[in-house]
Amino acid sequence: MEKNEIVEPLTKIMIDILNEAHLKKDDIFVLGCSTSEITGGKIGKNPSQEIGEWVVSTLMNLLSSQGICLAVQGCEHLNRALVVEKEVALKNQWEIVEVLPSLFAGGACSVAAFKYFKEPVEVEKVTAQAGIDIGDTFIGMHIKHVQVPIRPSIKELGNAHVTAVRSRPKFIGGPRASYRNG
């Protein structure tokens, strides 16, 4: 695959997501990604470090310009732990765990995050406001309740299925209650 085959559609997908998610400075955005699925393989079987770097750098560029923090979820071999900036982990009081991701334990995007982040650390869980799932990696455990699907105009990146999610406050009350964002 060529870089523009990943970066251009991913940028469009992210613009769709950001337009609907209404994130603000210091919000957390989760990336779950299988580069194996992007290239048409089975999740975890044929990771591409190059594609992982393209994906992570694209998201970092789009999110950092708005002050949004990226959390990169690893695979099940690391219990879906996430790479975040140490400053973000400390600010949110997330427990830092000790592990270094590799292509087959964590995945290409986690390895890329360790390469590109200023001071990367791993944490077991986060509570993010939104996220993107490229290749059915299941990021829901890291998204704040209540989760609302986002349907970007592009549904695949390479050969990988793409879904996205944002969160909203819970609606509470009964038939007499009213809401600002009904």
Automatic annotation (TrEMBL):
SUPFAM superfamilies for the chain: TTHA0583/YokD-like
Gene3D superfamilies on file: Hypothetical protein TT1679
NCBIfam families reported in the protein's UniProt record: TIGR01440 family protein (TIGR01440)
Similarity comment: Belongs to the UPF0340 family.
Protein name: UPF0340 protein ACFO5I_08580
Annotated source species: Enterococcus lemanii
